[in-house]
């Protein structure tokens, strides 16, 4: 079963139970994705790391993530859209998901839904599917409203997991904005102080905030974002290590090599050789 809608301005939204069989959707590198296991299990590879998902587990992925479904034992749903259909940056005040559900690091939002939460999201999916039986000039905006409702509901569930109540919203918003800033500036700004200044906070305040939510340290988040991009470029491009180091803002190859070995626990050449051999074997 598949539902797909395209706008005249190249906006796309889709829902499918067979993402792994849809070559067009898999080729489209502009799509944000929710992947939700509805029965059985799913093995999905994200940036060359396999995740094993079980019933009512759901993850959110950005266009930056390289995704491959490895094994399906049951049924899963994929809900996809691009920025031309709904821009999470432009509507950030409405849905508050940018930097929380969606960011470019290797830390992926992964939720285990309760029965009640699953029913909540399923009711939205049912409304979405039903809307495809109505063909009029209001359909596009209605689908956008339904998508927004899904994102807001998912965001609320994720906030509940992290115990973000009304009294903590302001402090958590700082964390969310930090992730957004790191996504936008990690190539040229590699110190917590740089981001603290943009947020009008001290580095110590940021460290305490992240610790309070059990999150990696602010510096670790910068390093993990750089590492994630380095690995993507090493695996999915033919660029040399020197070129990648320059793209990521390192002074020279030696500095990039030291950073990569410290983060990945292996050299650049070892990582590229091992992972590309793994890709060829599969």
TrEMBL record:
One of its GO terms (molecular function) is DNA-binding transcription factor activity. The keyword DNA-binding applies. Keywords: DNA-binding, Transcription, Transcription regulation. Signal peptide: none annotated. Residues 176-274 form the HTH araC/xylS-type domain. InterPro entries: Homeodomain-like_sf, HTH_AraC. The keyword Transcription applies. It comes from the Bacteria. This is HTH araC/xylS-type domain-containing protein. It comes from Phocaeicola massiliensis B84634 = Timone 84634 = DSM 17679 = JCM 13223.
């Amino acid at each position: 079963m598949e539902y797909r809608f395209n706008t005249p301005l190249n906006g796309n939204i889709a829902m499918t139970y067979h993402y792994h069989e849809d070559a067009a959707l898999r080729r489209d590198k502009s799509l944000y994705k929710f992947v939700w296991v509805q029965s059985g299990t799913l093995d999905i590879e994200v940036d060359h790391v396999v995740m094993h998902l079980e019933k009512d587990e759901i993850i959110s992925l950005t266009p930056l993530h390289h995704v491959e479904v490895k094994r399906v034992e049951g049924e899963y749903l994929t809900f996809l859209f691009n920025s031309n259909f709904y821009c999470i940056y432009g509507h950030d005040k409405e849905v508050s998901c940018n930097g929380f559900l969606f960011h470019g690091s290797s830390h992926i939002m992964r939720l285990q839904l309760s029965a009640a939460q699953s029913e909540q999201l399923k009711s939205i999916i049912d409304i979405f599917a039903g809307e495809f039986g109505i063909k009029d000039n209001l359909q596009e905006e209605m689908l956008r409203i339904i998508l927004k409702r899904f994102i807001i509901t998912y965001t609320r569930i994720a906030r509940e997991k992290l115990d973000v109540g009304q009294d903590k919203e302001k402090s958590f918003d700082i964390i969310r904005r930090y992730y957004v800033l790191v996504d936008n500036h990690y190539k040229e700004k590699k110190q917590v102080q740089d981001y603290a200044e943009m947020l009008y906070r001290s580095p110590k305040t940021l460290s305490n905030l992240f610790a309070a939510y059990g999150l990696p340290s602010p510096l670790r988040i910068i390093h993990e974002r750089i590492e994630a991009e380095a690995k993507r470029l090493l695996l999915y491009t033919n660029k040399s290590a020197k070129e990648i180091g320059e793209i990521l803002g390192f002074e020279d190859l030696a500095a990039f090599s030291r950073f990569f070995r410290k983060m990945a626990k292996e050299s650049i050449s070892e990582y590229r050789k091992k992972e590309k051999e793994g890709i060829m074997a599969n």
